[in-house]
Amino acid sequence: GTIFEDVNYVTYRDCAFSETFQNEKYGVAAIGTVLEYCSFNPGAASAGPYGIGDVNYTVLRGNLRGNSDGVRANGNVLVAESYIRVKLTNSADHNDGGQSYGGSGTVEYRACHIDMRPDTGQTVVNVNAAVQFADFATGTTFTGKIVDSLLHPGPGEYTVKMLDGIRSSNIRFVVTGNRLYKGTNGYFDRGNTPLSQITWTNNVDAVTG
Question: Are 107 and 146 in contact (CB under 8 A)?
Answer without folding.
Answer: no
